Amino acid sequence: MLPPSRQDYVSISLAGAGAGSYNNSKQWRRQSCWRKWKQLSRLQRSLILCVLVLLFICGIASYPTVTEHIRGNALCAAHPKHSSLSVSLKLNTTGGACLFLVFRNWRGAVIDTEQATKGTKDMENKDEPPANPEAKPSEESEAVREAFRHAWRGYKDFAWGHDELRPISKSYSEWFGLGLTLIDALDTMWIMGLKEEFEEAKAWVASELSFNRNVDVNLFESTIRILGGLLSTYHLTGDTLFLDKAKDIGSRLMPAFNTPSKIPYSDVNIGKGTAHPPRWTSDSTVAEVTSIQLEFRELSRLTQEPQYQASVAEIMQQVHKLDGKLDGLVPMFINTNSGQFTHQGIYTLGARADSYYEYLLKQWIQGGRKEDQLLEDYLQAMEGVKKNMLQKSSPNGLTFVGELSHGQFSPKMDHLVCFLPGTLALGAHFGLPADHMELAKELMETCYQMYVQMETGLSPEIVHFNMHQGSVRDIEVKLADRHNLLRPETVESLFYLYRFTKDHKYRQWGWEVLQNFNKYTKVSSGGFTSINNVRDPEYPSPRDKMESFFLGETLKYLYLLFSDEPDLISLDHYVFNTEAHPLPIWPASA
Ligand code: DMJ
User: What residues form the catalytic site here (predicted)?
Assistant: First the structure.
């Protein structure tokens, strides 16, 4: 069993009542009670005390709102379904006796209810049916767990402690040399209840993972995968090992912000403490510098060290004010010297801009929906999408998000854009305009069609939509775009759409995607592989690489899509970073 964290204790003071002035009758009553009490035998007194303590515990355990009043601001409760409850008596710092109720939660459904705002708690009570403690994992959830185990077996056998599995050659590839897949997968294992796998991964983190390495890492990728993965695992488990590691990598990434403009460089050497842009430019990617905020903000909140949050807030402030946007849409590059957008006039919701939009909304949610500027930028951008980027395909009228280049519309859509239905639905859940949900549903259908219209039932990396009347098919794929990297965006959005609508078709679609991953990308000796050609079911042409996000994101979202546990990572308590690592929504007082 994991050691309880600071937040695992619910302390209820039973002694040490404050001094007060007593009047005579009160004093008399108290003395007579005391005399009666003294007349009881030792056994009688023990029995009465036991019954009182038991009644007290039952009351507390069955009325979580009561515990919240008692515990004030500094404690946590767990979802009863996955929790164990133990009781202990300890002395508090002022010498009074304290009864401690220790909630331990293996699957981490809702460890820290204090992280939720009051408003969202109310919403949750209203919307979500109580968990059914008898519910068995569905066949679909089991199938996802099995897929995860298969992926993990390959990683364990051939790539343990390395960044990515190469399942065909039974070897591995390094990117940063930091066990990327293992770290990305930690919280997925916890959520899926894969104890054994989690424990062996944790042992590796404890004994092998060192960030004191002379290695260049990409700021964005290491933030979303490593820092995000460690922070969320800390929150789910309460184990400070992960927080300590998160602090270590977070502080080692900070040199990236030492630029003339304060817009960070793309790369940092975490051993030497030096940072630099890519060799060929002094630009950074807009999506990269604006999609590290959830993680650094959370790191500041946990450590009470403001520099992390200040550095990423500075970026948002600057981007907010920059010229070169089109109706809230941003270009793809920003210069680290001047702080200005470069390569202006090109707009996409795909690669290099995608998660800018996602993080506007998610920071607003994370911070308790108080940061109006983030919301304004998000709403303006979504209007910009509607005005400039949306079109319908022919012959079937699929709504899609294209790209703009100097006023010229291109009907090109990356699979990456399929994060958008989920993000729009999340915003609508938190009270943003209802037409966001309608658009989310339309785009969800399109992303699904990007799968079903391919011969393998798996989406390519990029599609082009036909817009001229009389087209035979809606979707075209260029030769160079036929690969599938096991990306998560469509199943991510299916998860959100199912959570908010409970429309079973989204599960059905996710089930089909899982079946096709199993059919065309599963490698018998362990692991899954990216493929080169989604249009050739006879020979999809394996690429020999399993991306870390397949375990960190794709399988996690599929599992959550099929899970019948409404509180398993409640969207009223957690916000997912762009690598699917859930971080707590801050309490109202933060
Ligand atoms: C992941 O690393 C993240 O989801 C990122 O935002 C986009 N690219 C991959 C998954 O496709």
Answer: 221 (proton donor), 354, 461 (proton donor), 489
